Amino acid sequence: MKALVYHGPGRSAWQDTPDPEIRDAADAIVRVEAASICGTDLHILKGDVPDVPPGTVLGHEAVGEVVETGSAVRGVRPGDRVLVSCISACGSCRFCREAAYGQCTGGGGWILGHTVDGTQAEYVRVPFADMSLHPLPESVDSREAVLLADIFPTAYEVGVLAGRVRPGDTVAVVGCGPVGLAAIATAQLFSPSRIVAVDVAPTRLEAAKRLGADAIATAGEAEQLVADLTGGLGADVAIEAVGLPAAFELCARMVRPGGHLANVGVHGSPAALHLEDLWSRNLTLRTGLVDTSSTPTLLRMLIDGTLPASSLVTHTFELGRTAEAYDVFGRAADTGALKVVLLGEPPHDTLSVRTGEPV
């Protein structure tokens, strides 16, 4: 098969690789129908995630068809259409028993495209298939469903739930990439009084408005705007969805005393925690890796048409055109890219591949 293989910082190639094989009785082999590129993949290519070894197939988000299962798999069978979760869960360790699958100590957690070969390939081996695959009805568009592999549960769990968004809150979301936009969409489930979206790219701020942000601001304007909207108190919840020190420190300055700061972004360099300013403000700081325990709930919402996933997909490419797809996604400020989806052949849905053109 062919796959996108990481060869060290700044280097990757779409190349021939061995077909995946069943290694454990709990494995499944999935033919990739759709995969997507995550900001974490860009961090890996930059060298920000040094525990990814060269030779690893990248990617941790996919929709596909089961083609083979190990002898212990009971929840899916060949021919089933499935969502591949970005988190693999053994199901029996202490953390999995608490539904904290991202912290799995039984060989799972974030492993796809990290410590084992990932989803940006024609086929992928999925460990712990019964816990890590979600059956999909044929009616669900693969380009929407793939967003539930990572960005929607990440935004909802690590941003909205960890940030404890409540009715009447003022919520500031710093970073309006795909995860930030998903946080804006899912924060509305809890009826905040206002959501302030912060970004440097006008196209992303416009996308934030379309998804329900009540106010938008650049980084230089955000503190004053939030102060004006809250009578000087600050945001009840600040969600950091960039992964840059400046974004984290901006969130810390904007959140009110007694408020919550939820860090979602993947950080490749240190960020200052100004305890000389924060020690007396009763803040709650939450960090975390997504558990994907909310995926079944979000999937029901997608099937019911109440989750605005389609508006986040701006570009599609054939699976073999990963170099072009990464270039478009990596230059999002210039290209207007939000979520870039890679479609395998043949896709289950009947809509045509647009080969990199906006959808």
From TrEMBL:
Q: Which Pfam families match?
A: ADH_N, ADH_zinc_N
Similarity comment: family membership? Belongs to the zinc-containing alcohol dehydrogenase family.
- Which cofactors must be present for this protein to function? Zn(2+)
Does the record bear Oxidoreductase in its keywords? Answer: yes
* Entry-linked PANTHER family: NADP-DEPENDENT ISOPROPANOL DEHYDROGENASE (PTHR42813:SF4), ZINC-TYPE ALCOHOL DEHYDROGENASE-LIKE (PTHR42813)
Enoyl reductase (ER) domain boundaries: 10-342
One of the entry's Gene Ontology molecular-function terms is: oxidoreductase activity
* Name of protein: Alcohol dehydrogenase
Under Gene3D superfamilies, the record lists:
Medium-chain alcohol dehydrogenases, catalytic domain, NAD(P)-binding Rossmann-like Domain
Which InterPro entries does the entry mention?
Answer: ADH-like_C (IPR013149), ADH-like_N (IPR013154), ADH_Zn_CS (IPR002328), ER (IPR020843), GroES-like_sf (IPR011032), NAD(P)-bd_dom_sf (IPR036291)
Alphabetically list the UniProt keywords: Metal-binding, Oxidoreductase, Zinc
Q: Which domain of life is it from?
A: Bacteria
